[in-house]
Each structure stands twice: as C-alpha cells, then as structure tokens.
Amino acid sequence: MEQFNNRNVAEGGYYLVDIEDYPTDGWGKFKRVVKRSFKGELFVGLWVVLREMIRFDIHTISYPEEKMPIGPRYRAIHEMKRLWESDTERCIGCGLCEKICISDCIRMDTKIDEESRKEVSEYTINLGRCIFCGYCAEVCPELAITHGGEYENASDQREHFVEYADMLTPLDTMKANAQKEFDGFGAITPHEDERVKKTPLSY
Amino acid sequence: MDNAYLIETVIKVVVILLIFSALAGIGTYFERKVLAFMQRRLGPMNVGPFGLLQVGADGIKLFTKEDIIPTNVVAPIFKIAPVITAATAFMAAAAIPFLPAFTVFGYEVHPIVADINIGILYVLGVMAVGLFGPLLGGMASANKFSLLSAARAAAVFISYEVVTGLSILAPIMMVGSLSLIDFNNYQIENGWIVWSQPVAFILFWIAAFAETGRTPFHLIANDHEIIDGFGTEYSGMRWGLFFIGEYANMFFISFVIPIIFLGGFGDGSVLGALALLGKMAFFFFFFLWTRAAWPDVRPDQLMWLCWKVLMPVAVINVVITGFVMMF
Fold it and tell me: Is A52–B40 a contact, with Cβ atoms under 8 angstroms apart?
C-alpha cells in the first residue's frame, strides 16, 4: 500500500533537459546528423530495453487472479451500514443523499412506523446512472451510506444495478462482528474528537 | 532429371514451407513476448502454458474469420496481393542454404532447394518482387490510406533495393560468385567477410530493415495513422498471409545476413550448423529488439538516408574495394 501512496515520482527532483538550438542552415543540420550517427544514442536505447528485459521486473498484474490493493478513499459501489448496537439500519431517512445526488440516481421513500419513528421503506441507487462522486457518502450524517471497494459490477441486466439488499451489510456479518467501518471518503477523520466544538448555544 | 532428385526437391520444398509457416507463427509469439519483456509486461499468458498456444488461437481466428471483399475494391488484384507477399517470401528461400549438407540413411542431403549460380541475386530479386503485395493490395483497396501506404511502401522498397544491391556488390566482387554456397566456402578460407567489408555489412543490415519493413523503417503499415496501412481493408487469412510473408521474410533475411557476412555454417560441422542457427536467432532477435527501442523515421528522412547517405557510402565502398582488389 505504501508504495502506491508515495507520489514523489522524481526522487532526485526535476531538472531541465538540455535542448540544443535547432539548426537552421545545411551545415548545421549535417553536423547534427554526423553527431547523432556516431554518438551511439541508438545503442543507449537498445541497452535500456535490454536491461529491462534482463532485470525482468515485470509490472503486469494478471487481473482476474491478482488485484491491485485499492485505497480507503476509493469510491466504488455503495455500502449501507448497520448500527453496531442493534443491527438495525443506520439510515434515518433524512433524504440528504437523495437531495445532493447530482446525477439523480438515489430514490428513497419513508414513512412513519408504528413507534412513530421515521422508517425507510424504499431505497434505491441506480448504479447505472451513478457517477461515484461520493457526495452522498460525504453528506450522510450517520455514516450510513459509504463507498466500498467492490468495483466489479458489470452486468447485462439493469436490475442488477439497483439491488438495495446487496449493498446492505448482511445480518450474519453483523452477528460475526465483521462489519468493516469506513475510513474513506466522507468518513470521520481520525482526530475528530479533539476538533469537535460544542454547539454555539452552550457558549 | 532423375526421380530421386525430383522427390528430394519436393520433400525439401514441403519441409521448408511447413517449417517456416510454423516459424512465422512462432515468430509472432516471440515478438510479443520479447516486446512485452522489454516493456516490463508479461505478454500472452493465458492460452496454454506461458501463452504458447496463443499462436494456435490466432491461427484458428484468422482461418475462420469471414473473408470480406469490400465493395469498390478491384477484387482479383485485391485477392491475389497477399498471395504475392507470402509466395515471394517462400520462393526466395529456394536459394538459401539453411544448414550444411548432412547424411541421412546413407543419402546425402543438401538443405538448399536449388544451388543456382545466381543465388544471392535470385534471393534479393524475388524478395523485391514481394513489393507487389503491399503495392497492389493498397492500390486495389479503394481506400485512401491504403493507397498512400502502398505508395510509401513502393518508394521505400525501390530505394532500399539500390542500397542492398550496391552494398552486396563489394562482397560479390571479392567472392567472385553469386551462389550462397560459394560465399560460405570463401569464408572458410579467407575469414568472415564482415572483417574485410564492415561498411557493406552495416549497409546491408540497415537495408534489411527496410526490405522487411521492420521498425525503424516501418512505414509500410504506418502505425502513426492508427490504421494498418495497405492492410486496412484486409481481414482473416488474407491479412494473415501478409503477416506470414513478413515474418518469413524476416527469417530468411536473418539467414542471408550471416551466410554472406558472418561465415555462414562454416566448414559444415554440427557446430557450424548450430552457429548459423544461433546467428540467425540473433538477427531475428535484433529485429524485435529495435522495435522495442527505436522510433520510426519519417518517410522523407528515410528517403534522405537512403539516397544521400547510404547510397553514396555504398558506391564509395564498391570503388575502394575495386581499387584494393586491382592493386
């Protein structure tokens, strides 16, 4: 993982390539040709590719068998999380995700249940329309909708793109205490507790 | 002409055809693997162990693909063009001694179809006729890019024919024969020709790249145009024939260069035969190597290189060789 996080590609720092002036007259062009022909630049190129072949430092990932590790901020298919305490869905039906979704792919229906609590009766994300911008995960006050790492969602059926049950953490995963908390896009940052302020009313 | 000779010749022709058709396929495998390794990729991996059966998969695909003759093409010429490329490539093999003579069940076999006294001239001439494949194919294709590519191919081939001929002239003067067998025998006594004719060797090598249309001079099927040059309108086995022709040509020219300049198969021992195969393998590998390392040159640069640099150098080389031989 660390090697992917390292963005300092030019370790030795960048430097300007020394480019000579373009020759204008015939004699200059001739001199350049002679210089290039006998400088052995062609052999430098040959040596570079041969060196890579001998080194055999292959960077191919044979994809279906091997996969790249992906970062926690990767935004793939959404996951609907459950509460640790009660195993019920975290979603409180506030509708913020539906409101903020810029490609209009989230639809939800809510009702008041018998205990006069708001309950989500329908929740769909049309993954065929979703652009995976992450706004829904960012706006969610309960960390109920998050992005997961599952990106293999090709299908020839549109219905496969809207299955809510697939996104919801299964109950047996909850029973096994195996729900993975999300530390990616829109999640609470590690030192949030120290930075949180009281509401203005109290001071 | 006795029957034994006839049967022997037919067998040799069939063996050469089979071996080099197969080699052309395996050549594509090697090309993909070598290029991949040089670019830190793996190349074909999934069909068979290490992707070895990829050649077979490609063959099945080429053979079973629909043979499309587009509208507006000149159908007879369009159909015959790939055959010209493949056929001339294999015809050129007739005068190449692939191995020294060996004995099987008391019968002496010369692994050359016909040791004609104009050997090298025949090889180069027939290879040059291969030019008509891309030229006719491109012109008959009813496609502007194919036409441009055909024009480019004709220009490149004709120009480099001059360099090939002139560069080979100096060794021919020294050997005093055109037969490749005589070239080989000359080098047993007098050492490799490359030591006495290094300039001719390099010129011939450069020209070989243009003759086979390989990467520094890969202008025939110009990759910069995204499409495949004269082969744009071709599909299936017709396109495959162009491919087989190109790769067979690469193998044959990889045989010809060591035979002319690098001692060939030497005195005819097993070691000499293996050495020839090794040299051939190196030259074939070099074709792939340059493809990974070097960029293509522009057509005008190619013409400039041919007419203003290589041809004068070749002529001077011939003149100097003549003077040295005279005095």
Answer: yes
Give the CA dihedral A162, A167, A171, A174, nearest 10 degrees. Answer: -170
Contact B40 A50 (CB under 8 A): no
Comparing CB atoms, the residue among B36, B41, B289 nearest residue A50 is: B289
Task: Write out the two tokens for A17.
Answer: 């390539």
A156-189 confidence digits (pLDDT tens) = 887 777 777 778 888 888 888 878 877 766 666 7
Looking up tokens 């409101």 gives A99
Percent of chain B surpassing pLDDT 90 = 37
CB B181 within 8 A of CB B119: yes
Per-residue confidence band for A120, with pLDDT thresholds at 50, 70 and 90: confident
Choose the mutation target among A36, A51, A53, A63 for the interface with B, i.e. most B CBs under 10 Å.
A53
Nearest to B284 by CA among B92, B12, B24: B24
Query: Do A49 and B289 make contact, defined as CB atoms within 8 angstroms?
Result: yes
Please indicate, yes or no, if residue A31 is contained in any of the structural domains: yes
Residues A84, A184 share a domain: yes
In this structure, what token pair is assigned to residue B217?
Answer: 């001079």
- Number of domains within chain B: 1
Alpha helices in chain B (DSSP H): 3-38, 54-64, 75-92, 119-129, 132-140, 144-175, 180-190, 193-196, 198-212, 236-261, 270-293, 299-304, 311-326
Tokens coding A97:
């995700």
> How far apart are alpha carbons B235 and B231 in whole angstroms?
8
Which residues have C-beta within 8 Å of that of residue B255, sequence separation ≥ 6?
B96, B98, B276, B280
Task: Give the structural domain span for B131.
Answer: 3-326
Read off the pLDDT of residues B9-36 as tens digits, 9 standing for 90 and up.
Answer: 899 999 999 999 888 888 899 999 999 9
Q: How far apart are CA A146 and CA A90, in angstroms?
A: 11
Q: Cβ separation of A48 and B293 shorter than 8 Å?
A: yes
Asked if B45 has any chain A CB less than 8 Å from its own CB, the reply is: yes
Interface check B41 vs A, CB under 8 A: yes
Number of domains, chain A:
2
Residues A129, A36 share a domain: no
Domain CATH for A100: 3.30.70.3270
Chain A residues with beta carbon closer than 8 angstroms to that of B45? 62
- Identify the domain containing residue A114 by its residue range: 78-188
* DSSP single-letter state for residue A201: G
**Residues whose CB falls within 8 Å of the CB of residue A203, separated by 6 or more in sequence, listed in order:** none
The candidate with the shortest Cα–Cα distance to A145, out of A116, A184, A117, is A184
A64 in contact with B, Cβ within 8 Å: no
Locate B34 and state its tokens. Answer: 């070598």
